[in-house]
Write the structure tokens for this entry.
Amino acid sequence: MPSQFRFFPEQASTFASRIDLLYAVLVAMTVVMSVGIFAMILVFMIRFRRGSKVIRGPQIKSNLKLELVWSIIPLVVMMGLFAWGADIYFDRSYPPAAALDVYVVGKQWMWKLQHPQGKREINELHVPRGYPIRLTMISQDVIHSFYVPAFRMKQDVLPGRYTTTWFEATQTGEFHLFCAEYCGTDHSRMKGRVIVMEPAEYQAWL
């Protein structure tokens, strides 16, 4: 058994901490709002239950100030979260011009990868630490999805159309690679690993 339980994989790319922080804020807001709503429901259930001695005045038809407050504040918060997520999305959509290219073909049920120098791999991807890597991907048959949890990176791989994504690894080691789109009988076996190396070691491997 593992010596330490983890809710999330390690953060091994430049995007990982940014995505985790946004996710944590969304979860925290969801928890706070859910607890608040259910607490009010419970209070009203107890206080205004049938037979309780409580003042039951006429219903308030409208309160413009209150309606503005509970409309404008959530709108500002939600638009702020949207802008935050959009900033991360656009950063991930446009790889740096100096990114190293790797070409990926998804196939039932394996990943084929090729470096510009001609080096080819199956279900493994060797990359240097600290360099942006641009993946240009296409599927040979059905829809696949290239997913590396430690990089917080997932991109659908489509037949008849090229898709691209990029990442920059921040630590050396081996990291899981999965297909995150059900693609047939052996979908669960369509996995591999990304091996991050020091730049000099990577050049020697090439």
